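How a chain folds remains the central question behind the approach discussed here. In the encoding step, the backbone of a single protein was reduced to a row of integers, each denoting a local shape. We regard such an encoding as a compact summary of how the chain folds. The sequence in question and its structure tokens are set out directly beneath this paragraph:

___
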Amino acid sequence: MPEVRAPERRRERRRSLTEPGGETNREELAGAARFTEWSPATPDALTWEGPGDRPPADLLRAALAEGLLGHPWDRGFPRYAWYRAGDVVHEFRLTGDSPGHYTGYTLHPSEWPEGLA
């Protein structure tokens, strides 16, 4: 019987930090991004649990400006951005509706991207 192997992964792994590159203007990314509230379909889905003093849109812009970004890029925006405040990490993910529109939720420490732990 021939050996069966899994195909090689063509895209970068999810939840891993990447450098955006020298040509990327992080301030422009942050200014063009928009936060969209996410309503989970099930009660066990990831939800937003964050500091009450800063709205999610501010945290999204901070994540993009500080460069905590993840591949792949889609229409000029990173698919993932993360913001860490102490022992809480928020993940922002492109929604796919329009360029620069993100939704966000809080991650369990076991789900944190490599490099943030």
User: Anything to note?
Assistant: The two ends are 43 Å apart (CA to CA). The beta strands are 34-35, 69-74, 77-85, 88-94, 101-107. The first strand starts at residue 34 and ends at 35. The chain has two helices and five strands.
